[in-house]
Amino acid sequence: MVRAGGSSVAAAGPTLAVVAREAGVSVPTASKVVNGRDDVAPETRRRVTAALERLGYVRRPRFDTAKSPTLIDLVVHALDSSWAGAVLHGVEEAAYEAGLEVVVSAGPTRTRAGHPERGWLDKLTARGSCGVLFDLAELTPPQYAWLDHHRIPYVLLDPVHEPPAGAVSVGAANWQGGVSATEHLLGLGHERIAVIAGGRRSMCSGARVAGYRSALAAAGLHQRGGYVRHASFDEGTARHRMHELLDLPEPPTAVFVCSDRMALGAYTALAERGLRVPDDISVVGFGDLPEARWGNPALTTVRQPLAEMAATALRLLVRLMHGDRPEGTRTELSTRLVERASTAAPSARSAARG
């Protein structure tokens, strides 16, 4: 699916001349509209814009094989999070080493038809970006098809859903992280261990839950009914799921929460019930972002090396931009458990609950 871009690849799709003919204008006039010039009558601009949309015309990146690529796009899920900060840190260092400039944006947004929003695509191609790094991508099949059609190399950092065959991606060893979190709780003596997972279709969440189940099975334990709850990687839904677990006839003595942010939501629910961590229930998170140290007590969590993941993804993108495909399409970096104060052996009081 992914192909490295280059000037030797023939442009696909309608030419500007076809757009001009469709709109009933000259090629120079159509070019003015594409380039955002002001000296075009409003009605003419409307006709040209409609033709651009109707024909699916997109300006092609101006790759130049005589020069080294210098500009890439980083598209993050959101800019106002510690996750984004770690990604930016990793990309910044790797880009500096590679002599690249990075344009950062949040998006791309979608149209009702599921296609990438035209403004974002036009900006991408107009500035001649040589590749795109997508963070937490939830791209649609038409979006992947657009990137493939226009020969724009891309790498996915921790994609939310299973990417198409051949797409290059970087993530953490989520299954092993789930195993480590569960083994840690088992080693403390817990047997009633629940999970608050992310979305049901989330790749990383599914792998973490699979690791949890594998660790239980290896210890000769069965997953208890109702002990796996799905949230939306936010504090609010995790808080509700924690309340649901506490309402079970036999509530857990420990919970593995599949993100640090959700773990803080679980903390809130426990405080609302008058329960203390880890005296009444142990909590393990996932991520080891700054918020893991903000909780009271500080959160035991599985560290995923996010900055290193981002740097690895950028280096893979540079290889694609130079026509060098990696041997495999999926790269996973190892995780490790970071023990803090949110886990302890089950107390007599916690074991008696339920």
List the helices and strands and how they pair.
Blueprint: H1 16-23, H2 27-34, H3 42-55, E1 71-76, H4 82-98, E2 101-106, H5 118-126, E3 132-135, H6 141-149, E4 154-157, E5 168-172, H7 174-187, E6 193-197, H8 203-218, E7 228-230, H9 235-246, E8 254-257, H10 260-272, E9 282-287, E10 300-303, H11 306-321, E11 330-333, E12 336-338, H12 348-352
Parallel strand pairs: 1-2, 1-3, 3-4, 4-5, 5-11, 6-7, 6-8, 8-9, 9-10
Antiparallel strand pairs: 10-12
Order of helices and strands: HHHEHEHEHEEHEHEHEHEEHEEH
Strand order of the largest sheet: 2-1-3-4-5-11
Strand percentage: 15-25%
Q: Using only CA atoms, what is the Rg? A: 24 Å
Q: Which structural category do the helix and sheet elements fall into?
A: alpha/beta
Percent of residues in helices comes to 25-40%
**First-to-last CA distance:** 52 Å
Main beta sheet, described?
Answer: 6 strands, parallel
Give an overview of the whole structure.
This protein is an alpha/beta fold and 354 residues long. It is 40% helix and 15% strand. The protein contains 12 helices and 12 strands. The radius of gyration is 24 Å and the shape is elongated.
Key features of this structure:
single chain; 354 residues; alpha/beta; six-stranded mixed β-sheet; 12 helices; 12 strands; elongated; disordered N terminus
Summarize the structure.
The protein is 40% helix and 15% strand. The chain has 354 residues and is an alpha/beta fold.
